[in-house]
Amino acid sequence: MFHLDEYIGLPETHPASFRRYLNERLVTRVHPGTVHLIQGDAPDPQAECQRLHRLLVGREVDVSFVGIGENGHLAFNDPPADLKVEDPYIIVELDESCRRQQLGEGWFASLDAVPRRAISMSIKQIMMSRAIVCTVPERRKAQAVHDCFTGEVTPLHPASILRQHEHAHVFLDADAASLLNHKEDDRCCGDFGSMIYGR
Known about the structure:
Layout: E1 5-7, H1 18-30, H2 45-56, E2 63-66, E3 89-93, H3 96-104, E4 117-121, H4 123-127, E5 131-136, H5 142-150, E6 168-172, H6 182-185, E7 194-197
Parallel strand pairs: 2-5, 5-6, 6-7
Antiparallel strand pairs: 1-4, 3-4
């Protein structure tokens, strides 16, 4: 199992650490086998990216589990995202809307406390997965869902790239789907796997 993204400089003990979240809610319960987590507090983030690259190179990812940010980001690839970078893991700058989302979710006491950089799996690497499962809950994601699945595929709406993957499956609750016109927007799916609306 390969980790999708992690804040740079954040120890695993911090409540917002994604590796802490994964360990507590998945790894210790499911025991998925070998797990490669991003060490966000590694002294050299670029060396950490290279370490992960060496572990991932030559392997095929069966399925990626992803979400969509309030700004349409995929992993921590904020807009305008680099859709073509070849490196499997990259260092990214987090834009203010992304950082405000993290603050709004209650993980940090102030915007200044939210890290400004992260290590993220690149979009191209995510798209190399045999299948992608994307789940998007809540009304605060509705605009991003609309922008990503009804307009053009563009770096300004990074998760729109999922429409180019034939085995991407998007699961939306009713709130996240609230800005979609279901009859008209069914056309947005193109050749990708499916879009399923919750109630």
